[in-house]
Amino acid sequence: MKFKEFLNKLQNLPDNKKKIILWVVVGILGITMGIFWINGAINNFSKIGSSVGQIKLPEIQTPKTEIPITETTVNKTADWKTYNVDSLEQCNFEIKYPADWSAYTWPLHFVVAPGGLVIEQDPQTHNGCSFQMTFDKYSEKEKYCYPVILSDGQDCKKTFDLMISTFKFIK
């Protein structure tokens, strides 16, 4: 009965030694339980990892759509005339317009009337599309060139949009 002798010996130890022995035993038990818990968690996670690989998700089929290739602005305006203004009261710009249209300018007058450009489909009868760009100034010394665009006719909107897309200042 060595176990009873061992217990008696422990009971006769001073209190501070009893506390040390108790904490050592609790620590050893805690470490042992922790090792078993970690091994069990690793085992469970590996099972989860292998079952996730076996899951088959549904495949979603997306319709294939083809984007039609459209003509670019360059192709649509390739045969157009280019109106190049390098002297309209220092408003240097260029704009393209249909080859069968006509263009003319009027001078910029301080206060009286702004200068501008008219591009018309039929300048003789003034029927059809008319595209006007007006250039204004604030004083004799400072000239600010900004286009104010006036256009007639909804039928001409696509043509006007193409004309505007070709507008650029050249100086």
UniProtKB/TrEMBL annotation:
The keyword Transmembrane applies. Keywords: Membrane, Transmembrane, Transmembrane helix. The chain crosses the membrane at residues 20-38. This is Uncharacterized protein. It comes from Candidatus Staskawiczbacteria bacterium RIFOXYB1_FULL_37_44.
